[in-house]
Specification:
By secondary structure, this protein is α+β, with helices and mostly antiparallel strands. The chain is built from nine helices and six strands.
């Protein structure tokens, strides 16, 4: 009856061995000592194997280093005491102790691997969250830059309207008073709108940025940019296909900025070449950037996607024969035509 109770106690303790490994070790050790003289040889082998393997591995795998060492020391001392008291053979006692130490080492190794996996999972979660935060910040930054450029274009249009209204008011003495009042209202509205636009630009502009007063760039300035990069040792080629036509300001600026961003992210080494192809058609302009020097980091893909989406364009970035390739199609619609 004592044997049955001891075995049942070890079986029940097995269910909460992870929550209290040292208590589990003490209970199994006490049960093993009680059973050392009462079991038959057939059961002694099975129960002895269980007592040697499971408690040592559990304590080593689920306890800190100090507690695991304390459990190992207790088990070694207890095993020696039980072995001497029970007249156990020295060879059997030594074998059991060696087995216990090996199981303890295996448990520590398993614990280290488990903790490493948990830390890697936590690091992966943090990196994913950080990557999402950086992407959101990059999107916000890019959209703010696009907004500044769009506001600059609108401000330039308002300046032109104001200048034209002022010029139209010059022969005012020969015009009816109503026309003079209307032209004056146009001029005043333009000046007010321009002032409001400057306020908006001041809010959007970063603290240390300078106000942009130069004209917005376009594909016409590509040769100047490429000449400057080539002087720095870069290997860049530009090909134009089709009939180049004046582009709407939004398309012109978007094409320039996409190429500028692609070249900024490219490999600057001289032996890494980049080829740019501009294809003009009646309804769209196509930008293709290829070469061994082209790199497509996440920030570049985000920038190109935001720029192209502004003009209802599409972006394709496949690899052709293991060579990076960036293809952007920007539609030219009638609504975006340059006003006369």
């Amino acid at each position: 009856m004592l044997n049955v109770i001891a075995v049942a106690a070890m079986a029940v303790a097995f269910t909460w061995r992870r929550r209290a490994p040292l208590l589990f070790l003490l209970l199994v050790g006490a049960a093993a000592a009680a059973l050392s003289s009462g079991l038959t040889s057939a059961h002694a082998t099975l129960v002895g194997f269980y007592c040697v393997t499971v408690p040592m591995f559990t304590v080593a795998a689920w306890q800190t280093r100090s507690r695991a060492l304390a459990g190992l020391a207790f088990w070694i001392v207890g095993s020696i005491g039980v072995g001497i008291g029970g007249d156990e053979a020295v060879a059997g006692l030594a074998g059991g102790l060696v087995m216990s130490c090996l199981l303890w080492a295996a448990g520590r190794l398993w614990r280290s691997q488990r903790l490493l996996s948990e830390r890697l999972r936590e690091a992966h979660t943090l990196l994913a969250a950080e990557r999402e935060d950086r992407e959101r910040l990059a999107i916000a930054s890019e959209r703010a830059r696009i907004a500044r450029e769009l506001h600059t274009e609108v401000a330039q249009a308002v300046v032109a309207m104001t200048v034209q209204a002022a010029a139209a008011r010059a022969p005012a003495p020969d015009d009816p008073p109503v026309a003079i009042a209307a032209i004056t209202a146009i001029e005043q509205t333009g000046r007010t709108a321009l002032a409001r636009m400057r306020d908006i630009l001041g809010v959007l502009r970063a603290q240390h940025d300078l106000l942009q007063v130069r004209p917005q760039p376009g594909v016409g300035q590509l040769h100047t940019m490429l000449h400057r990069l080539r002087d720095g040792g870069r290997s860049i080629e530009l090909h134009v296909e089709g009939d180049p036509t004046p582009l709407p300001s939004a398309i012109d600026l978007t094409a320039y900025r996409i190429i500028e961003a692609a070249l900024a992210a490219a490999d600057p080494r001289p032996h890494r070449d980049v080829t740019i192809v501009l294809r003009f058609s009646d309804n769209q302009v196509e930008l293709e950037v290829t070469g061994s020097g082209l790199q497509l980091p996440a920030r570049l893909r985000l920038t190109v996607r935001e720029r192209a989406a502004l003009c209802n364009g599409t972006v394709v970035a496949p690899r052709v024969d293991d060579v990076p390739r960036l293809l952007v199609r920007l539609p030219i619609t009638v609504a975006e035509a340059v006003p006369a």
